[in-house]
Amino acid sequence: SSQELVNLDEFEALAKTKLPKMAFDYFASGSEDEYSLRENRNAFSRIRLRPRILVDVSSVDASTTVLGFRISMPVMVAPTAMHKLAHPEGEVATARAISAADTIMILSSSSSCSMEEVAATGPGVRFFQLYVYKDRQITTQLVHRAEDAGYSAIVLTVDTPRLGRREADLKNKFKLPPHVSYKNVEGLLNVNNLEKTSDSELAAWADNLFDRSLNWKDVKWLQSITKLPVILKGILTVEDAILAVQAGAAGIMVSNHGARQLNYVPATISVLEEVVKAVGGQVPVFLDGGIRRGTDVFKALALGASGVFVGRPSVFGLAVDGEAGVRKVLQMFQNELEITMALMGVCSIKQICRNHVQTEHEHHTAINSKL
Ligand code: HOC
Fold first, then answer.
1. ipTM above threshold 0.90
2. Would residue 280 be called left, alpha or beta, if left means φ above 0 and alpha means ψ between -120 and 50 degrees?
3. How close is the Cα of 202 to the center of ligand 1, in Å?
């Protein structure tokens, strides 16, 4: 059970003992030699906190609003594929835990429970992550099904014309076990007779099915087929953030896809501030990648994020203890964030500001100016 675990590293370690190697490696690994995977976390550890003391923190409230939805904390759950690889109940268990925690779930289009099954678990604010397939009719159907099932936004992944080279999956010859399938497209896309372009089954599927021609015009196309707000996930540069705002994105997710796509991209936290500045408050900017602690959440908010998303943490919770495990992981984030806020001298999310953090660059500048 997850009762005795006190942090996410312990969840990850236990998940590793519980899952088949192929499944654990799929979730945990990054692309190529995993520079960006390490950086996502290391970059957080180079940011220091500047606490303010003697502030009355007898009442601390971590709740916030995202796209008009009131949630318990600025920690939401990023899309991750194929939860039945982690637990037999799959995304249904994840969804229940996220609703119980009163926060937002982004369901992966590559889920192993259908979006309708997830919606049927009960009330909850959910967004639908989308990959655009070569077959635009199927893509359109998925978007309309998400609307009908009550999803509140479309999160378009923009960093995946092909899957990154994930060497663990190649070595393991990644293949879905018989009890796990690509549920949202079952009966729509035939994945049985695709060209075997990779030793990783998912990479081969992506090669065959994803539309590599996807470009800015398609963002307009997507907006033309749905009334839902469209968030762009996978932006890492000021240039693209500006284009995203011009294209009418309702939000931007600074993300490197959990460092599973292009290696040697920067840690997401290290580019957040420049993106936020470029966007100038026109749309909310979110971040995922490397968030493991309440202090990480606080640092991202201080650098301008409107909220953060965690992917692997919830998968590890699911692997360890199903719905209860995901609940425990989300409770840990809430608890760590509230303690961090109290120790930092802030009572509400709105009070978190730039002066609460010192980046590595600022630290060096401060030292040099004293010499
Ligand atoms: C058609 C194949 O985003 C990941 C997922 C990839 C989903 C592949 C779906 O592993 O990063």
1. yes
2. left
3. 6
